[in-house]
Amino acid sequence: MVRDAESIVLGAVEAALVRAGIRRGASILIGLSGGADSVALTCAILELRERLGLRIAAAHLNHRIRGVESDRDEAFVRAMCARLGVELIVERAEGLDASISSANFEERAREVRRDFLGRVADRVGADYVALGHHRDDQAETVLMRLMRGAGAAGMAAMAEHGPGRLIRPMLSISRAEIRGYLDARATAFVEDSTNSSRDILRNRIRAELLPMLEREYAPGLGGRLVEVAAEMRSLDELVAAIAARELDAMRRRGGALEVSGFSGLNRAVQPVAIRLFLSERRGSLRRISRAHIEAMRQLILEGGPSDSIDLPGGWRAEREYNFFQLIEAGAERKGSGAGAGFSVAIAADGITVVGAAGFKFEASTIAAGDASMPDGLSVAMFDAANIADGPLVARNFMKGDRMHPMGMRGTRKVHDVFVDRKLPRARRERFPVVTVGGEIAWLPGLARADCALVTKATETVLRVEASEIAA
Predict the structure, then answer these.
(1) In the chain, what are the domain boundaries?
(2) How far apart are CA 382 and CA 441, in angstroms?
(3) Alpha-carbon Rg of the chain, whole angstroms?
């Protein structure tokens, strides 16, 4: 029986490390609290260290919220690592207030712990950060998220590998198997008294709800919840791959998405694409709920030409015509002010890149007889004789700009042209305005002015083609 307990845990941990693709020489940082799970994980990886050629270190964060008990945990971990010869990095947290609501406190504590482990991993050069979550934790997480109305991504719960360098090598092992492993080794650990507090939702699910459901309604429910998580993770990975491909097709310069075809995406793909976009722009999905995702989906599908919604953390989701973007508080002011403008002469032959605008201009000078009418506003033809005194110049848009559109009487505000052509507000400041001798001649792809036009008397034509370049 002793041998069974040890072989179960060691076999499962080794298999998980192999699935994660961990190679010989890899460095693993173990999050070591001193509790049964993290102690078992540390001992198992130590037993596998030589066989797998691993380098190991441990990290312990003293949250300093349980007084003497927190200090007891730190002392236990220090003594354990000294006895086992494991490098240990310890830090004492500052600023955690245990008086705030339990949900907010738990989230804040997770953030502090995540930041701590990331910093230590960077310091010691760890390739992976190993956590002691196990199969029962997974079942509890799935049930808790189901109660909160999670979708497929939430129901996928914890991954054995990821995000980033996180690994959870004991995710296939039960709490009972972990305790059996520690008993077989006669290995000590510490108990966290808050694990028995009924003020914490997870504790109530573990001690009351899940046992009651298994006893009275669904024997073996915990195992089935773990199976559901695995199925949901496979489903979520498939849908995420599809969503990523669709997202790439929607990307436009400046971080906006062109969403005219969004309604044509499968209903399951739409929220996943939004989640991926949010995660890219914000760096995480923290504090983003399913309700936020649905609000953004409705904004894209049914929002007006200039609607927006506020998001946690000072972000705003904005729909402008067929473009959708996420804007951080104060981002509108970035890049404005002195030094934000640009003015670039366009060469008469060859390619001119205007990086500040995200455009390139390809020009060539040809005989009028060889010139053909352009098939769109991304190409402009100029009478070369009428611009002989100076080059074409691409500059930034300025408030008050006016142009004389070809075929119209009088002048028109460039701003009004932008609005009519549904150019997103975020792109206007950096959109290239092409001038001839200071007079606006062309808004690439939007409008051509009645300036330096080709006529029957034209002998030489300057042909210029504009195109956007990748960010």
Answers:
(1) 2-226, 251-333, 343-468
(2) 9
(3) 31
CA distance 256 to 382: 32
Distance of CA 364 to the CA centre of its chain: 43
What pLDDT is recorded for position 118?
94
Specify the pLDDT at position 335: 41
**Which amino acid is it at 198?**
R
Per residue in 380-398, pLDDT (tens digit) is: 999 988 886 677 899 989 8
Parallel, antiparallel or unpaired: strands 412-413 and 402-403: antiparallel
Rounded Cα distance between 89 and 275, Å, is: 35
Contact 394, 354 (CB under 8 A): yes
The enclosing H or E element of 88 equals strand 87-92
Indicate the pLDDT class of residue 413, thresholds 50, 70 and 90: very high
Cβ–Cβ under 8 Å, residues 350 and 362: yes
Look at residue 336 in the predicted model and tell me its pLDDT.
Answer: 41
Predicted local confidence at residue 334, as pLDDT: 45
% the chain with pLDDT above 90: 61
Domain 2-226, what fold?
Answer: Rossmann fold (3.40.50)
Q: Which CATH number fits domain 251-333: 3.40.50.1460, 3.20.20.140, 3.30.465.60, 3.30.470.20?
A: 3.30.465.60
Per DSSP bridges, beta strands 87-92 and 55-62 are parallel
Token representation of residue 185: 């080794």
Q: Which of 382, 398, 404, 388 lies closest to 342 in space, CA to CA?
A: 398
